[in-house]
Design goal:
The complex is a heterodimer of chains A (about 160) and B (about 110). Chain A has about 160 residues and is of the alpha+beta class. In chain A, about 30% of the residues lie in helices and about 35% in strands. The longest helix of chain B has 23 residues, at about 90-110. Classes of the chains: A alpha+beta (about 160), B mainly alpha (about 110).
């Protein structure tokens, strides 16, 4: 365990789709916005490309850089929170997304989000958000709709603040 | 990945304890999980296989070690399907009430 990051979460979901469609769902801003609780992941989609998540009013939630980009298999992002001072102070985390073919015409998506720091509050906090984002992604790809539609007055910042404690 | 498999996996107290242990410290090896539980290595291995089959535990190889992680995605699906629709807010108020009443009773017994 000595060489493993100290705060680490793994999220696995099986989605009835193709690796190519899932890859496109992960790397297309317009599509990603639908399952990202209306926050907007955007990037220059290549190794070394800048990456960020913004709220609908344009404020920046997280920033980072694409460190691995292998369509349709593996994406890695060096990731730092920007809108909560105590999370920003924890520094950089690493998020990897891996796509593998699975039995029964499904694909397995493994998201790992970790930080080389014991008891990271940021990694703990995002562990509330990821399962919902991945449920929405699965549902969107399989049925064309997200699990829980957002209310008209939905405020993603409030939602994230609540999840981030 | 059926919800039946998730409920079956959760039906066993030893498996729930393994999940609690991973929730406390994520990314443990089989050896570490065995240390914390009064079970044989074979029993822990069998329970982990059932949890992995239900997608409640995910594993990652790191060098020669296999690390076990709690996967919160199926638990979120259960919460969406079975809890949120029954007004989670009321339930959490009731659960807080139950906790506080039980704490009071425990206090009485301790005195």
């Amino acid at each position: 365990m000595s060489n493993s990051p100290k705060s680490s979460f793994l999220y696995v979901t099986y989605i009835r789709t193709t690796p190519e469609r899932l890859w496109s769902a992960l790397t297309t801003t317009e599509f990603a916005q639908q399952y990202w609780l209306s926050a907007k992941p955007q990037a220059e989609w290549k190794v070394g490309g800048a990456w960020k998540i913004t709220f609908p009013d344009g404020r920046v939630a997280d920033t980072g850089e694409i460190t691995e980009f292998e369509p349709p298999k593996r994406l890695a992002i060096r990731w730092r929170n920007e809108f909560m001072a105590e999370f920003k102070a924890e520094g950089w985390s690493l998020c990897t997304m891996e796509i593998e073919p699975a039995a029964g015409g499904a694909v397995k998506l493994t998201v790992s989000h970790s930080m080389d720091r014991e008891g990271s509050k940021f990694i703990g906090a995002v562990s509330n958000g990821w399962p919902q984002i991945l449920s929405n992604l699965k549902s969107l790809l399989e049925t064309g709709a997200i699990v829980v539609p957002l209310p008209a007055d939905f405020d993603p910042e409030k939602k994230f603040r609540k999840q981030l404690g | 990945m059926s919800m039946d498999a998730v409920f079956r996996a959760l039906a066993d107290p030893a498996r729930r304890r393994l999940l609690d242990s991973l929730h406390g410290r994520n990314g443990q090896t089989l050896g570490e999980l065995c240390e914390d539980h009064d079970m044989t290595r074979q029993a822990v291995t069998k329970h982990l296989a059932i949890l992995e089959e239900a997608n409640l535990v995910a594993t990652q190889r790191r060098g020669r070690e296999k690390l076990h992680f709690i996967n919160p995605v199926p638990l979120n699906a259960i919460a969406e399907r079975w809890i949120r629709k029954f007004q989670q807010r009321h339930l959490s108020a009731l659960s807080a009430l139950k906790k506080s009443l039980e704490k009071d009773r425990k206090g009485e017994r301790d005195e």
